[in-house]
């Protein structure tokens, strides 16, 4: 057999540039089409998270199929046949260009539209997305056969792929979306896809002309090695855990730390950055450092982010979570790259990676919400990542060593469980317990070289801490649905006379969606954003003389506080996307607004824009939109087309009210721009209570009408400080073709 150094004689930089540019372009197109096509479907199916989750499952499934195709083609056919087969696939994919939805597409009006959505995605972008998905492993496999001096280890090219993904991820919300509408985005993507196909053809030409194929194939066949099941399983878990950890962290920080728009970009950026680093030539030096740093950062991470998070500002807590996440995935991905196979099994390696990523996404999106009532998959994957540290396979191979490493954590779990269930009132011991837990956290560092002990001990501390915080939070009810984590908590306030009084509060993640005082004299009083002294109380009082027979529609139920403004002759319709919110607000054990005040109220479950579209025109006297206070603002409810539809459903003298209280976004700018362009009149009040009152909070509302005369009762009333909407000259109008969250950040 010829020595490999005699075979791989080509040292030209142009080959590396060509193949790297192809991978870079492919990854960039992949990370642009995902958010782009999600936005295309948004006005058609509404803003349900099910739309985004179904799209993500589709993307991960096609990615896996693309990797499977690359694996089969490269393993069963010669290089020349691979080129011919792939050329046919590329030609067929051009049938899907230019990108767009099929003509006269109509979503189903009944049942779950997930399968319909999957089919539409397949018809619209399935073929080009499949080609893009095949590029990574196939082009690297081709590079391994072109006779370059680096062909024996082409994994470094994966850096170019992840750099492309990273730049596309950051450029879409901050560069493409703010400046280019969806129609032009589709055109530019199609042009980029054409450029990618030309690059693939150039790579194929290099492979076709290569004079080393036979020699390399012969050399590879003589050095053939089989992969063991344990090796494949090790790759699988090393890729599965970071994928699940990514989604788990994203859910956790938006649920329990801060509801900040586009916060999901940071974990995903770190995730892609880890691949850039570990597939680079510096991984051999960086990986041991990551392994050493992980248990060091684990100490303050568990001590403060789980045991005592209240002492830290939210941004420091967020930083600890992100740092611990980055080190965990760096260790996992570093181990993955350290155990990468020869080029003979390159496509198998990437196939297992893609399959693990798909499983991680499916687990977090479809399994975890149905088996956990909070984001418990996140701490579970923190422990799993610790179990994947170097040395764990050796420990498990030696059963006695594994048992010895697990003995101390298991003993601690048994003792902790006995103590936990034997104490009725934890409040008296909370400070002492906090100190004891932090001391135990410090002890974990002593087991940094024993991965099983480190993982189980950390898991026991996190589980015990989360259970303790659950008891101390006075959570009456907590459940998780497809739409997030909902919790009803009992707290104590001081009433007007300075006496303690119990209240119930409804939380969706970190965002409070309603509260109710429980005493008989106060249980019918709307609170928080809907208080009597606030803008909603002022509106109903200003129109008290003409509202006796109003037909009122409300988007966003919350605890149901608004229904206590209802009069006997009025008809109310509440639109709520999450069935669990309806169940909680309708249950007198938690809130009694609806049971006491909502006798003439009808519930509509589903996306508001789709539900309102089915209503007859000129139905409502008042339409209230209350869906913009969290981090995931449904932008499709704020476009010019949406406002035109709202006014179509209102009577000529109807009122349109928007609740726009938001810690991070200036939604008033979007509404002011619409009022100017669509020639509506609007009033704004940024309400601040003049004196401290129980559960009466700062809140911002906009009320709009077709005619300024309709708003006159509110304008001339002395009930509050209503002002004309401020002019906004620097904002591009929001439409179904264009929205830009970044432009309205505070």
UniProtKB/TrEMBL annotation:
| InterPro entries in the record | MFS_trans_sf (IPR036259), SAM-dependent_MTases_sf (IPR029063)
- In Swiss-Prot or TrEMBL terms, this protein is called Spermidine synthase
Taxonomic classification: Bacteria, Pseudomonadati, Pseudomonadota, Gammaproteobacteria, Methylococcales
Q: Does the keyword Transmembrane apply?
A: yes
Q: Which PANTHER family match?
A: THERMOSPERMINE SYNTHASE ACAULIS5
Coiled coil region boundaries: none
- Keyword Repeat tagged: no
Picking any one GO biological process from the record gives: polyamine biosynthetic process
The UniProt entry, under CDD domains, shows: AdoMet_MTases
Q: Which UniProt keywords apply?
A: Membrane, Polyamine biosynthesis, Transmembrane, Transmembrane helix
Q: Which SUPFAM superfamilies does the annotation name?
A: S-adenosyl-L-methionine-dependent methyltransferases (SSF53335)
Which residue ranges run through the membrane?
12-38, 50-70, 82-101, 113-134, 155-175, 187-208, 233-253, 259-279, 291-312, 318-337, 349-372, 378-396, 403-423, 429-447, 454-472
Q: Which organism is it from?
A: Crenothrix polyspora
